[in-house]
Amino acid sequence: MIANFEQHFKEIQNLIIDNYSCFETTKSCTISDDNWKRTKGGGGRTFIIEDGKFFDKAAINFSSISGTKLPQSARDNIKNKKATLYRAMGVSVITHPKNPFIPTSHMNIRLFLLLNKKKEIIEWWVGGGYDLTPYFPYNKDCLMWHKDAKQHFDLFNKKYYKEFAKNCDDYFFLPHRKEKRGIGGVFFDNFNELDLDSSLEMLKNTSKTYLNSYLKIINLRKGRKYTAKDKSFQEYRRGRYAEFNLLYDRGTSFGLQSGGRTESILASLPPQASWKYKKDSFFIKNETKLLLALQNKWRG
Description:
By secondary structure, the protein is of the alpha+beta class. The protein has 9 helices and 9 strands.
């Protein structure tokens, strides 16, 4: 059964790899495709595109790990105290396109299983979601991103989109900046309202909705010319992305606390980011415009 679950996630990873690889050639970028195992149980596949003509970095990672000692970041969710083993698996995707007019994107889907001594499942939940982080926001893109998400989740339950979109805004928030990380999307965790098969189907469709929405934005914006100043502003705002992932992201905390593969966990970080104290008029103008977009409740 565990192998079937793993295959489910591997197929999703392959689909996204195939689509994103089309934007590069073997000569235009550096590709790392690592299948790995860890001594404490489990393994995965880390697929990274770096230094490309299209992507500064894109990470499409699968992992399936097991252990007997639950990471602190997961303990609060445990109800069944008879669990002796946990299994966590999922796919995590992050893109940092070279063109600053194409937003950064993130998607994650995961399954968490608690097992007893007989390795029977006694508790489970799923989680995931996706969000968009533009640097030069387009209203059309933001509205479409949320419209697609709503259409997807309405097929399962019409209450889900509104709930998950609010979760996303609340979660991807930098308290020390008083800023949202991006224009949102959907986010859910500790979810088991549906049966397990339906939950896995929802995860699969979530990943496909993310991919299709993002490809639409790519095709709209990939021809936009940009300047060195535009690129510098993108890298400055990427600093916010790095701050969130290192300070607040629960997935990062879980991976590091569970003894995960550090290189894979931190693959989500942008290859270049900057922090500026004194900003010129170009930065001030574009940051003001961006912050207004981030404050907008695109979810409606």
